[in-house]
Design a protein that fits this description.
Two copies of one chain form a homodimer. The first copy, chain A, is α/β, with parallel strands linked by helices and 254 residues long. Chain A has one domain: 3-Layer(aba) Sandwich (Carbamate kinase). In chain A, the strands form four sheets. Chain A has an eight-stranded mixed β-sheet, with helices on both faces. In chain A, helix 3 packs across helix 4. Chain A is globular.
Chain lengths: 254, 254
Amino acid sequence: MIKVIKVGGGIIEQEKSLTLFLNAFSKIEGPKVLVHGGGRLATKVADQLGHSTKMVEGRRVTDKNMLDVVTMVYGGLTNKKIVAALQAKGTNALGLSGADGNLILAHKRPVKTIDYGWVGDVDHVNSSLIINLIQENIVPVIAPLSHDGNANILNTNADTIASEVAKALAQKEDTQLILGFELDGVLKDINDKSSVIKKITPELFDALKLEGSISAGMIPKLTNAFDAINAGVSSVIICDALKVGENEGTLISA
Amino acid sequence: MIKVIKVGGGIIEQEKSLTLFLNAFSKIEGPKVLVHGGGRLATKVADQLGHSTKMVEGRRVTDKNMLDVVTMVYGGLTNKKIVAALQAKGTNALGLSGADGNLILAHKRPVKTIDYGWVGDVDHVNSSLIINLIQENIVPVIAPLSHDGNANILNTNADTIASEVAKALAQKEDTQLILGFELDGVLKDINDKSSVIKKITPELFDALKLEGSISAGMIPKLTNAFDAINAGVSSVIICDALKVGENEGTLISA
């Protein structure tokens, strides 16, 4: 089974949590792929370069200057730091953006009410490249960047990349998607860290939404998780990023 | 035959010359590898971020801040722009730093009279990775960054990377090294652009040095070229970067 593990920007932007995450990640046995988020480092670098950051509904608006910044920070600094750290742990990591080896082809999001700028919606994942690398015992480390085939890099949400990569791999191999974040899993009560829901089925998800007992931020994550399952991914785990590989957290299954 | 083509920072930092170079590069048939330099964009970004650039004998002193900048700019912005542009031309490029797939292992240069900071001297090139990628019809695009195996990225001169990559490949495959730069080749008279020396043998190189008719900047380039040949590289061509693949310029051979 191939495990596609996504880690968010919140974990990787702190030296300490990044190290703990990479320790956990490097111990996972078998074929694996890492998809990392961007995080606030891009905002900080953009600020220092005199570019202001505009967010709409939690998503970064990516003008040309911001595109250069995310290409530098996500594709360069963050990706290479993770790769070098994994290499030091004996994990043969290889960093990729969506342009590398034509890994993730996307199109610039059409402007409806909001112009997100140079943001890409994924059209195709080159799963053969990932499978070839895995067969060489290489661990792909994917930055949240796609490309449009016309020489443009595009900024793409890391959750989306992880989910699209897992869905594409699932067409060829048994694939699990693991979404690592700051909490132990999906909580029944947002104020009670021990209220992790062990398993969520579509029926339970509907019931939780009706009850209103699930936090608003979790709904898109869970919706994406069920999309992945409907597209052939065997299972999705939402868990503490520092415990990936421990089979804890919330299991999403059909 | 595998062609390892090096292009300097001076070419890639100008949109127009970069495009012309990539057009020429994409037309080269057969297995090929691109090694790109950094150029002054790192200096510009460092300036904007408030880090001053210190050069000693034409080499950048790389403190921790500058290391982050070159990792961002060379490994992120420049590398991914080149990869996306080549993808648009139908060349299946894949960008790599020396950390990716443990491609270029180096050690931090020991401090003698000058402390160059986080600069790497190459110990080993993982030529198998390059050969595996080439067999998948992938064109590796290598940024001038190595790593030390202890989670540190190191800044390494692109000429050195190109030469070490060619030498390592030459142990397994017939390999040619092509050094693309701003002139048509090695000039007999620096003031006469048409005075390109067609072929330089070790004997002629010695004679030219004695005569003093070769520019100081060319001597390390030619010395490196002969080192590559002595280490098994079939031939070295020094030529106009915009004409790589045209078999013009200066041929260095034993």
